[in-house]
Amino acid sequence: MEGASEGAVIWDVDGTLVDTAELHFQAWVKLTKERDLPFTRADFAATFGRRNPEIIRQLFGPARSDAEVAELGDKKEELYREAASRGMKLVAGARALLEGLERAGFRQAIGSSAPRRNLELILRLTATEPFFPVVVSMEDIERGKPDPQVFQVAAERLKMPATRCVVVEDAVAGVEAAKAGGMKCIAVRFAGQHTGSALAKAGADLVVASLEEVTIDMVRGVLV
């Protein structure tokens, strides 16, 4: 290991480590079609990166009961996991960066709005569990992005101050959450849900087209 406690990198998952956007979109489409609810790609883009309860109430009405919100969210995730279980790959550059960060002494964690079962499935299918001693999921938080809670919990469990944390994100809400938590943020445009200018406007310290562009020195650089 080249250095000890260089800092921490907190990873979003969907659209950052793996390209799952289309799987999520199709799960929403199937769910809403069955229930005659409206849902478009614009709706998907507008809510990308947020927790299911917030998405459901934003799109389908704030008056829906907790039980109905939970039922809709659970069904959508069942549809997603069914599709995801057929195969999942890391995005280009992800494994090399994970390995490089580990060698350089960075601690790493997952900070995601997704349900824990989704995250466990993805980490297992991509054989990346060893990189992440800390996994923070939807069940660990009460407030979704752009609230910083998910990243704050991850930093706390890593025993790392916010000022030494870099968040890797692909969504505007995630970038806003990282900055609200006093952390640095590298935004990836790979998934294409948000433009580079939108990610920069949200406060990203660095915007890249792919994780293949990111070096260890660049990660160190945003922490300076």
Mean pLDDT: 91
**Helix coverage percent of residues?**
40-55%
CATH topology description of the largest domain: Rossmann fold
Low-pLDDT stretches are none
Structural class: alpha/beta
Rg value: 17 Å
CATH superfamily of the largest domain: HAD superfamily/HAD-like
Kindly state the number of beta strands. 6
Summarize the structure.
This protein has 224 residues and is an alpha/beta fold.
Structural account:
This protein is an alpha/beta fold and 224 residues long. The protein is built from ten helices and six strands; from the N terminus they run βαααααβαβαβαβαβα. It has helices at 21-34, 41-47, 52-60, 66-84, 94-104, 116-125, 149-158, 172-180, 196-201, 216-223, and strands spanning 7-11, 106-111, 134-136, 165-169, 184-188, 206-208. Strands 3-2-1-4-5-6 form a six-stranded parallel sheet, with helices on both faces. The chain is globular.
List the helices and strands and how they pair.
Blueprint: E1 7-11, H1 21-34, H2 41-47, H3 52-60, H4 66-84, H5 94-104, E2 106-111, H6 116-125, E3 134-136, H7 149-158, E4 165-169, H8 172-180, E5 184-188, H9 196-201, E6 206-208, H10 216-223
Parallel strand pairs: 1-2, 1-4, 2-3, 4-5, 5-6
Helix pairs in contact: 1-4, 3-4
Which terms summarize this structure?
Rossmann fold; globular; 6-stranded parallel sheet; 224 residues; alpha/beta
